[in-house]
Design brief:
The structure is a single chain. This protein is α+β, with helices and mostly antiparallel strands. It contains twelve helices and nine strands. α3 crosses α12.
Length: 349
């Protein structure tokens, strides 16, 4: 997650949390190892989830709002509990955000958002009901979660040579290039009137195209002839087009260039616009990246696939070890629904 996204997420979560409700006693929904998640905390996350899902959401009735909240709440409460468990783990492992690190992130925030001073940043945060202290807490929580993921999940992922080679052999098409061709074209348009195509004009255009092709075969530079005669926009670049995947060419053009080698020139071709001459500037056959060159990409792909499974095992272990004390039966049911949804969406090995 980049700095800007961190700040946006922090602001969205803080929108409801920062509302003026100091005179209201907080309703505790759940205690996770003694730390609480309140109704206000949940509301902030629900707002963030709704805005992320549909920034233009404007429920036209209480029933519509209730339905929208019911849809996002299971995953929201699961995420809230998981984040708290990860933050607690990070603190247990002794991770902290140093002042220098925080200041560095703040400077990046200011730079990316064209904010010239701390005062302007504080004013921008104030508009969202946040302080610098709120921002630091949100950034530190994000940092703790990322650090725990890195040390407890990522660093423990191992990819063997056998896995790398097996993946490569089974997915060679992922490391191949498609056949490509770079062309030069000269197009002679046939004028079209309200009555259609004039036969004499068509014959004249074809004769002109044949004359230009004869000049090409006589050795005159294709690029100069394209600039002098072509009616195509590519004339400004000497008729150069591509590189293009051969499969992206029309069937007629594929047939016209079939068998030609680099430097080959097609006969005059009739097109919907008029007449065309094509020269093969460069041909590139399909190739497959060698295993040693593909090793890094393969390792990333396999690690990415393992990451979800390893993270899930890790977070399930944290949940099992935690003391989760529910204070609201409705939110507990939403949490259980969220866990079932997560299990259903998790790919089976």
């Amino acid at each position: 997650m980049n700095v800007r996204n961190i700040v946006v997420a922090a602001v969205m979560v803080a929108l409801a949390i920062a509302s003026p409700r100091a005179d209201i006693i907080e309703q505790v929904l759940v205690k996770v190892n003694g730390e609480i998640i309140t109704k206000t905390d949940l509301e902030g996350r629900q707002i963030a989830a709704l805005r992320q899902k549909n920034p233009n959401l404007r429920p036209d009735s209480d029933a519509a709002l209730k339905a929208a909240l019911a849809e996002v709440t299971p995953s929201v409460i699961v995420d809230a509990v998981d984040e708290m468990l990860m933050v607690q783990k990070g603190k247990e492992l002794g991770y902290t955000m140093s002042t220098d690190r925080f200041n560095s992130i703040v400077e990046n925030i200011k730079k990316e958002n064209k904010i010239e001073s701390d005062e302007q940043l504080q004013a921008a945060l104030k508009q969202e009901g946040m302080t610098m202290a709120d921002l630091r807490r949100q950034l530190e929580r994000t940092m703790l979660v990322q650090q725990v993921q890195q040390t407890e999940v990522m660093q423990k992922l191992q990819v063997t040579d056998t896995e790398l080679k097996t993946y490569y052999e089974a997915h060679k098409d992922e490391f191949g290039t498609v056949p490509q061709v770079t062309l030069r074209e000269i197009t002679i348009n046939v004028p079209v009137t309200a009555q259609g195509i004039n036969v004499a004009a068509d014959d004249a255009a074809k004769a002109k195209a044949e004359e230009v092709r004869a000049k090409i075969l006589a050795g005159e530079p294709f690029a100069r002839l394209a600039a002098d005669y072509s009616d195509s926009g590519s004339k400004a670049n000497g008729g150069l087009v591509g590189p293009l995947a051969k499969s992206d060419l029309s069937e007629d053009l594929q047939k016209a260039i079939a068998g030609l080698k680099t430097g080959g020139v097609t006969p005059v071709i009739r097109t919907t616009r008029g007449y065309q001459i094509i020269k093969i500037e460069n041909l590139q056959d399909s190739t497959t990246k060698p295993f040693d060159e593909a090793r890094g990409d393969i390792a990333d792909k396999i690690a990415s696939g393992k990451r979800q499974g390893e993270y899930r095992k890790f977070i399930i272990r944290l949940r099992a070890e935690a003391i989760i004390d529910w204070k609201n039966d409705e939110i507990k049911k939403a949490y259980e629904v969220g866990l079932k949804q997560e299990e259903a969406e998790t790919p089976q090995p």
